[in-house]
Specification:
2-enoyl-CoA Hydratase, Chain A, domain 1
Length: about 350
């Protein structure tokens, strides 16, 4: 199978026993469109029973990004039509439903999957890379789950990994949306090892196929290294000791470092609803498996689509680009528990229209 068409948004090729999927929208930082999601899913389905394909490698085209997330500007207009009552909730949910279905397919894929997380890896990009069996960060990796900055929540099954981060690092990333480097990803448990510039990675992956320990074989072939030290790890572990946002804010105020002040500023400028819902989600997710989390993503996503902060965040960051969102509610203390609980209640529409 070789479907490499230069102007295609996804390049699907085989090389030896390796299936290679290249996200090919470098001008858009390889942000995922609905068509890309469908092409990736089709390739994985085709390879599932193909004995010639032993493993799958995900790459991002260009030098800047693996994948910067979902193409949320395209979603914005369908979502606004839904809020105006012009279309049903099913319409804006199409993208997320198919994206979450792809996340689930990758997580459970029965052949080894490898992600080369070179450059920007954010949001939906981690929905592909994070669920792979081997996640290779690089010196150029810039990772974030920045959803609270646009009035959304860490979705694409990422909460499954965030709650498993060491030293409460997942809470820190989820509640602030801060970006970190590849070494921090490895140290936190969000990637398996880090490499410097390796040029063409495909030959090294080909050479490691069939190894009993694929991660170890790739780490040796790529001269990869494991990082075990998180910057500000002690402070983060202490401050983000629970999912109580008000308590986290109080602890940050008690700290006297520049890092604590910067973190407090981020926490207080993100969507208050997003931060509080994300905190409640990470609390619930400690007892959930992956399938339960991706199903909950569906429920929470539906409710964010129906609330205004998501559109205000996208407007401020990507449409008007004034970087001045007006959140509703505007302050963390104004987000009551009833509002938070409502985000975890399925929206009222025909659930049979949308399936994972």
């Amino acid at each position: 199978m070789n479907q490499a068409v230069p102007d295609s948004e996804v390049l699907v090729t085989t090389r030896g026993g390796l299936g290679v999927i290249t996200l090919n929208r470098p001008q858009a930082l390889n942000a995922l469109s609905l068509e890309m999601i469908r092409q990736i899913r089709a390739a994985l389905k085709d390879w599932a029973d193909d004995p010639a394909v032993q493993a799958v490698l995900f790459l991002g085209a260009g030098e800047r990004a693996f994948c910067a997330g979902g193409d949320i500007k395209s979603f914005y207009y369908a979502g606004m039509d839904c809020r105006r009552g012009l279309v049903s909730l099913r319409v804006p949910m199409v993208f997320f439903t198919e994206e979450y279905s792809l996340n689930k397919l990758i997580f459970h894929y029965h052949k080894p999957t490898i992600a080369f997380m070179d450059g920007i890896v954010m949001g939906g990009g981690y929905g592909i890379a994070g669920h792979c069996d081997v996640r290779i960060a690089t010196e150029k990796t810039v990772f974030a789950m920045p959803e609270v900055n646009i009035g959304f929540f860490p979705d694409v099954g990422s909460v499954y990994h965030l709650v498993r981060c060491v030293r409460n690092y997942g809470r820190y990333l989820a509640f602030t949306g801060r970006s970190v480097d590849g070494r921090s990803c490895v140290a936190a448990g969000l990637a398996d090892f880090c490499v410097e510039d390796v040029g063409d990675i495909v030959p090294a992956v080909e050479g490691a196929l069939g190894a009993d320990d694929l991660t170890g074989a790739l780490k040796r072939a790529l001269d990869g290294f494991v990082c075990d030290d998180l910057e500000q790890g002690v402070l983060i572990e202490r401050v983000f000791a629970d999912c109580d946002v008000e308590a986290i804010r109080a602890r940050l105020k008690d700290e006297e470092s520049d890092f604590a002040r910067e973190t407090l500023e981020m926490l207080e400028t993100r969507s208050p609803s997003s931060v509080k819902v994300s905190a409640a989600y990470l609390e619930k997710a400690q007892e959930l498996d992956f399938d339960e989390i991706i199903a909950m993503d569906m429920v929470v996503c539906q409710n964010f689509i129906l609330h205004q902060d998501l559109y205000e965040g996208i407007r401020a960051q990507l449409i008007d680009k004034d970087k001045q969102p007006v959140w509703h509610p505007q302050r963390l203390e104004d987000v009551d528990q009833g509002l938070v609980n409502a985000y975890f209640t399925p929206a009222e529409y025909d659930s049979n229209e949308v399936r994972l």
